[in-house]
Design goal:
The protein contains 9 helices and no strands. The chain is mainly alpha-helical.
């Protein structure tokens, strides 16, 4: 799962309680670039740097190249989406909810702001948000690369990672897209275009192991974005 709009609003409110005291921590500046040549695959810091760039709308050609490199060497989607199967995110969301349940008047910063539990929670939440955003980008590319064997034209028709994953789950390896229910997933006009294009696609049916990888990637992306 990822941070939804309501939770992000709560996180902003939580951060406001300590924002004034943390101004001396320094300017965040531009997001860090991921290390594109790490032996053994990307580190969590690489994925977080990618997520920071995504959250700030600064994805560039270097980031795209990094995503491609990561995906090209990944045997499984779970090797590049560590938080999809981790209890760390759920535990953090529980901590945020518990902190929000405590009235503001019952909270008081004693000593350095850096030692305040809420301040530490905000930092951890921001780090997790970046990590999840980075993983969503990488998993989306993984899904695109593996499903293009079946329906290469789909990625130009459905741009949103979440809508793409939901569409892939609905279509799967179906040969007749006119029988696939896309209502509630795509707008009517897009449904029609997808159905017509799918009937003349240059793709082929997927083998069982290929379809399994696609299903895992779609489920992973949807789980991260909930």
């Amino acid at each position: 799962m990822a941070f939804d709009d309501d939770l992000l609003a709560e996180l902003d409110e939580l951060g406001d309680d300590v924002a004034d005291e943390s101004m001396d921590a320094g300017d965040a500046g531009a997001p860090a670039q991921p290390n594109k040549h790490v032996a053994g695959g990307p580190t969590s810091a690489d994925i977080s740097a990618l997520g920071e760039a995504s959250n700030s709308g600064r994805i560039d050609e270097e980031h795209e190249a990094f995503i491609g490199q990561v995906v090209s060497t990944a045997a499984s989607v779970f090797s590049i989406a560590q938080h999809a199967q981790s209890s760390e995110l759920s535990a953090l969301l529980d901590e945020i909810a518990q902190s929000q349940a405590v009235p503001a008047e019952h909270k008081k910063i004693i000593g350095r702001v850096e030692d305040d539990p809420d301040y530490k929670l905000v930092l951890r939440a921001n780090e997790m948000s970046a990590a999840v955003a980075g993983e969503i980008l990488v998993v989306h590319r993984f899904l695109l690369d593996h499903y293009k064997t079946r329906f290469p034209e789909l990625e130009t028709l459905v741009r949103s990672p979440v809508d793409y994953a939901r569409t892939v789950k609905a279509i799967g390896d179906a040969a007749d897209l006119s029988r696939v229910g896309l209502a509630g997933i795509l707008p009517n006009a897009t449904q029609m275009v997808v159905t017509v294009t799918g009937s003349t696609t240059s793709g082929r049916q997927l083998a069982a192991d290929e379809l399994q990888r696609v299903d895992e990637a779609a489920d992973c992306l949807l789980g991260l974005s909930q």
